[in-house]
Design a protein that fits this description.
mainly beta, 124 residues
Length: 124
């Protein structure tokens, strides 16, 4: 059973930065597809960034140029560097994973495994 544990969220001023981490446990397959999603109160969960097993990344238009997804395969850890934060970036950020290549990497239904989330709060 895959377990995902996020960390790194917090309160930051607008324009600031954070580095979110997602530690993955409990799997042996090397081809894993992972993504970051976020959900603000009253909003739908939206894809932020995704990365495939070859390290190719996809980003939501709203975060391009500000967010960077990366992974450390040796540590089984996924990262999201979030820079130039805006109040609109405030949300619970979730890590997601699956072993089947997603047709739509930014769609929540493509991923079976989810973490509990880490909260990002941005003060203006």
């Amino acid at each position: 059973q895959v377990q995902l544990v996020e960390s790194g969220g917090g309160l930051v001023q607008a324009g600031g930065f954070l580095r979110l981490s997602c530690a993955a446990f409990g799997y042996m397959y090397s081809n894993i597809y992972m993504a970051w999603f976020r959900q603000a109160p009253g909003e739908e969960r939206e894809g932020v960034a995704a990365i495939d097993s070859d390290g190719r990344s996809t980003y939501a238009d709203s975060v391009k140029g500000r967010f960077t997804i990366s992974q450390d395969n040796a540590k089984n850890t996924l990262y999201l560097q979030v820079n130039s934060l805006k109040p609109g970036d405030a949300a619970m950020y979730y890590c997601a994973a699956d072993f089947i290549p997603p047709a739509r990497p930014m769609a929540p239904y493509e991923y079976r495994y989810w973490g509990q989330g880490t909260q990002v709060t941005v003060s203006s």
